[in-house]
């Protein structure tokens, strides 16, 4: 067991940040474990949802932001639906994932391909306005180092006329570009603060 | 009923048969679809797990476009439905956030239109209307209605109960099918991990198939292109986790409804599936 690093100087900083950003009363969690019991992906998690809820209160920032769980969460929201304290646990997980990205905490293990896929997905939207499935999949394979991953699936889709070789570009892609650009500005300002 | 139509990215490609069957059944039920010109991606899970503002802005642009048409919007894809409906809810609940998002999109959304799921659209005319259109009742079919997560969670946008919804069953019964009571109808299919972490997604898929088989279903009905892709195409990989596997066709709710309403298998795109749907056709006769 690794040594846990408690934030002695600002023990409540992480808790306050998460509560503010997610709008969720993390402090009300009484550790019943229903979120973990119902979680779709718990079997593949390194930290369970109820553990994360408690670790936020302990201020274990580094341990949480390093966790693969916050990236593997499918945001299916079962945890939220079953929480007896009405805490939106899924929103808390999402807040943590966004925090990890903005703090440039490098995702490891199973979290890495998740972050890569999300980035390529959004790049595709930014460029084309809609998802260009084929290019996104090819890029993902190239960058994740598994060139022929899902090749059979691709072949099946091709035969069934389910694969487009060119992107469908709606008019107004400059509007989409503007959304992404403005967002970078806004978040850049917030991060500098 | 006139509705703005938001197909979403999947319905243009991997779920083309969903698109066709929705339009076909919708028209039979008297719905007039007007596709939103120049709609863009809803952002899907990549959007909202990256940035809340980005997710809201990508959805709000499409809401504003529908609003310019003066029509409520239907999004057949469960993921698109959830993103659009949730954005509308979150904006309406938070005026300062709303203003901020309108500033980012540069295309103000005023909240005058609603977002409908495909189930809501189908049920809005009532089950009697559906029954009146059925010419080939789905007798002999035992359907496991699968909702997944996006149609029933979170609470603000759920189309029915998060644990044991019944609205899809209502539609299927009206079409003459038998529905099975089963355990995994609102479990997540793991689609968001299917590309990045297949070894995590496959066991999740197999649990759902196992539950449907145990309940005696001879097909699954779904209303989400992501669920469909996972349960149909990835069934080949998921079956190695199942001791008593038999092929389980996965059909869109609108394909089953279309069959009941006398539409042909070709029009409904039944050939576009990975798991053979011929067994279903034989049963329906």
Detail the topology: elements first, then pairings.
The complex is a heterodimer of chains A (193) and B (285).
Chain A (H helix, E strand, L loop, with lengths): L12 H10 L11 H5 L10 H10 L2 H6 L2 H4 L5 H5 L6 H14 L8 H18 L4 H12 L6 H9 L13 H20 L1
Helix pairs in contact in A: 1-7, 8-9, 8-11
Chain B lengths: L1 E4 L3 H4 L3 H13 L3 E4 L8 H5 L3 H18 L3 E2 L3 H16 L1 H11 L9 E2 L1 H6 L3 H7 L8 E4 L21 H8 L3 E2 L11 H4 L3 H17 L4 E4 L2 H9 L1 H4 L11 E3 H8 L17 H7 L1
Parallel strand pairs in B: 1-2, 1-3, 3-4, 5-6, 5-7, 7-8
Helix pairs in contact in B: 2-14, 4-5, 4-6, 5-6
In short:
The complex is a heterodimer of chains A (193) and B (285). Chain A has 193 residues and is mostly helical.
Give a written overview of the molecule.
The complex is a heterodimer of chains A (193) and B (285). Chain A has 193 residues and is mostly helical. Chain A contains eleven helices and no strands. Chain A has helices at 13-22, 34-38, 49-58, 61-66, 69-72, 78-82, 89-102, 111-128, 133-144, 151-159, 173-192. In chain A, helix 8 (111-128) packs across helix 11. The longest helix of chain A has 20 residues, at 173-192. In chain B, helix 9 (167-174) links the parallel strand 5 (142-145) and strand 6 (178-179). In chain B, helix 4 (52-69) crosses helix 6. Chain B starts with a strand and ends with a helix. The interface between A and B is large, with 59 and 55 residues.
